[in-house]
Specification:
This protein is about 80% helix and about 0% strand. It has a two-stranded antiparallel sheet with strand order 1-2. Strand 1 and strand 2 form a beta hairpin. Helix 1 packs antiparallel against helix 2, helix 4 crosses helix 12 and helix 6 runs antiparallel to helix 7. The longest helix is centred in the middle third of the chain and has 35 residues. The two termini are about 20 Å apart.
Length: about 375
């Protein structure tokens, strides 16, 4: 009986989401209320009102770790998207090769993990699926490839989910990151193979197994190394950039050996024309700046110590401490300012981007807080 009651909040979330088709926001709130009722009326898990409030506040504070990062991650995405940056990256990929398998592999283990690692919240799917459609893929295939490209979720939004997991479990973030990277390697392989199969069937896997294997080794080994020796938060970003670079190099080598078929016009090219041509390095510069700043804050000891000791939220009552300047959220904020400046984004566009960000961020913050409070 005690075991069953302990499962009730989890089972409740499952039923609310999959059977009653409620949003994660509503499911989280209802499950949270259910948990409070259990702790009030069931003697085996009884908590005093003071303990309920204490645990809830603690959960909200832990959720703030993710919310802080995610707000500026989503905002950065909308800023770059507003100037046609995402479309420009995709158009660049479509123009350098007509090899659909290579396009898919670069998007699945390159662009998609990069967007997800900096923004989170499933934004990569919302951008990648339309890109596949624009490249000429049927809607169903585009949707499947978009879902498959979500292969680096533990490092989404600069690994905020992993950070929260380490916080809740009371274990080393680096240890959790390394362990996650190790057990994720088969997952990377599976999803990459599935992506190629969706694109061209078994024949595509047979023809591109070398490229598939090389990119898998590069992505999985780099994400393991970055978790081990650099930063768990940066592992997804750095691995995506390196894998993308490797994919582009492979395309350049293969293009010198084979004929390039004529490029067809797509929605992406039209989108690029609307926004105007944007230098690919300029588009990538916010991600590069973000990576450099976080990398420096983790590697340069005096700088790290300064960031960890200034502007710190310290609440011993709730066993909570957070250095706001050391958090990836602060560097995402700085990157947003850099993006506004370098692209000369108008106030109206900034306001619209903020509005879109809040629309996505508020439900996430409430639902995540509810889930963590339940925990």
């Amino acid at each position: 009986m005690t075991f069953f009651i302990a499962l009730l909040p989890i089972l409740g979330i499952f039923f609310f989401l999959f059977f009653f088709k409620l949003t994660s926001l509503r499911a989280g709130i209802i499950a949270y209320i259910m948990t409070i009722i259990i702790t009030i009326f069931y003697s085996g898990y009884h908590l005093s009102p003071e303990n309920i409030i204490h645990s809830s506040v603690h959960g909200i504070l832990i959720s703030f770790i993710a919310a802080y990062v995610l707000f500026f991650g989503i905002f950065l995405f909308h800023l770059i998207d507003s100037v046609g940056g995402i479309q420009s990256i995709a158009s660049f990929i479509s123009q350098i090769t007509n090899d659909r398998i290579m396009q898919v592999m670069i998007l699945v283990v390159g662009l998609s993990p990069l967007i997800e690692s900096t923004s989170g919240f499933g934004i990569a799917f919302m951008m990648i699926a339309p890109i596949f459609i624009a490249l000429g893929f049927p809607p169903l295939k585009a949707a499947l490839l978009g879902l498959v490209s979500m292969l680096a979720v533990p490092w989404g939004a600069l690994a905020t989910g992993t950070v929260i997991g380490a916080e809740l479990g009371g274990i080393s973030l680096q240890k959790l990151g390394i362990g996650t990277a190790l057990i994720s390697t088969p997952v990377f392989a599976y999803f990459m193979i599935i992506a190629v199969f969706i694109t061209g069937g078994f024949a595509a896997i047979k023809n591109k197994w070398k490229e598939l294997f090389i990119l898998l080794i590069i992505f999985s080994s780099s994400i393991l190394l970055f978790n081990s020796f650099v930063s768990v938060e940066l592992a997804g970003v750095l691995s995506s950039l390196i894998t993308t670079g490797a994919g582009l190099l492979m395309i350049k080598i293969s293009s010198a050996k084979s004929d390039i078929s004529k490029t067809t016009t797509s929605q992406l090219s039209v989108s690029t024309e609307v926004h105007g041509k944007i230098n690919i390095l300029k588009v990538l510069s916010p991600y590069i700046i973000l990576t450099v700043m976080i990398f420096t804050s983790r590697i340069w000891t005096p700088f790290r110590q300064f960031l960890e000791s200034h502007v710190v939220i310290n609440l011993p009552t709730f066993s909570f401490s957070m250095a706001l300047l050391y958090s990836p959220g602060f560097w995402l904020f700085v990157t947003c300012l850099f993006t506004i400046f370098i692209f000369k984004i108008r106030k109206k566009i900034i306001f619209i981007s903020l509005k879109k960000t809040l629309k996505q961020w508020i439900p996430f913050t409430i639902s995540t807080s509810a889930f963590v409070c339940i925990s």
